[in-house]
Amino acid sequence: MTSLDTVLDKDGVRLTVDDAVATVTLTNPAKRNAQSPALWRALTEAGRALPGTVRVVLLRGEGKSFSAGLDRQAFTPEGFDGEPSFLDMARGPEAELDATIAEYQEAFTWWRRNDLVSIATVQGHAIGAGFQLALACDLRIVAEDVQFAMRETSLGLVPDLTGTHPLVNLVGYARALEICATGRFVHAEEAERTGLANLVVPADQLDAAARDLAAALVAAPRDAVVETKALLKGALSRDYEEQRVAERAAQGRRLRDLAGITD
Predict the structure, then answer these.
(1) How far apart are the C-alpha atoms of 259 and 246, rounded to whole Å?
(2) Which of 187, 194, 198, 255 is 20 to 30 Å from 3 by CA-CA measure?
(3) 2 burial class (0-12, 13-18, 19+ CB within 10 angstroms)?
């Protein structure tokens, strides 16, 4: 694959690949990259289209905002062209509604695959679904003007695009509840202080900072990064002794691999 191949470009999502680094770009700045079911399907397709050589995925949004969240057209009686409106879906069978939401969630789940490290580069507004998309990634680099907010509760809804789990893990239950229930903005200083952001930079340095981090991640041996990511993710559900066992098992695999020993 040649440098900067465009693998996918549809429904507000563009996927390009440059060797081990892929970039997923939200491409509707005129609507502040507002999200729709078509965009979610395109994000899911982007994840499935990644070549096996990709190790790092950068996520970015064109324009002044990363993503203003769900396109409010979803709540109108007509909904989106060719799509059932959210109001119509609510009137349908519960099992169908659950299956539809599960399909939407797929756009937010693949970013944490063990074989990838994903980095969200976030500027301006990251609201609701936009906040949850940033939370779907492993790491977040944010601009000084970033404004995170979880506005679902103020609309009578709940965050349902996989954002609640990483939010609680990053900032703790009490702060996560307060952020979600009030819908308030979280700015760059608080995001960095609470762990929502790994790094805060001026907006004009955002892409360069992401490229630098991607280069550092790619410099490490792939299998070691994959094992380390799996080990750290598993630590969230293991106790101390279980984590010790997992560390020994992972290190054993790495040492056997380095020694050229196959099972």
Answers:
(1) 20
(2) 198
(3) exposed
In angstroms, the CA 225 to CA 246 distance is 15
Residue 238, CB-side half-sphere exposure with 13 Å CA sphere: 14
Residue 12 and residue 25: Cα distance in Å, rounded?
8
**Tokens standing for 40?**
């979610």
Distance in angstroms (rounded) separating the CA atoms of residues 155 and 64:
24
Tokens of residue 210, six digits? 């992401």
Q: Which of 188, 180, 171, 76 is nearest to 125 (CA)?
A: 188
Over 166-228, what HEC string results?
A: HHHHHHCHHHHHHHHHHCCCEEHHHHHHHCCCCEEECHHHHHHHHHHHHHHHHHCCHHHHHHH
Helix (H) or strand (E) holding 173: helix 173-182
SS3 98: helix
CA dihedral 232, 234, 236, 238 (to 10 degrees): -120
For 24, phi and psi rounded to 5 degrees? Answer: -105, 120
Which tokens hold the place of 251? 């290190």
Tell me the torsion sign for CA atoms 126, 175, 106, 55.
Answer: positive
Measured CA to CA, the distance from residue 164 to residue 257 in angstroms comes to 37
Q: Round to whole Å and give the CA distance between 196 and 198.
A: 7
Closest CA to 230 of 215, 211, 213, 249: 249
Rg (CA), the chain: 19
Q: Give me the mean pLDDT over the 189-202 stretch.
A: 98
Q: Distance between CA atoms of 49 and 29, rounded to whole angstroms?
A: 24
Note the pLDDT tens digit of each residue in 140-193. Answer: 999 999 999 999 999 899 999 999 999 999 999 999 999 999 999 999 999 999
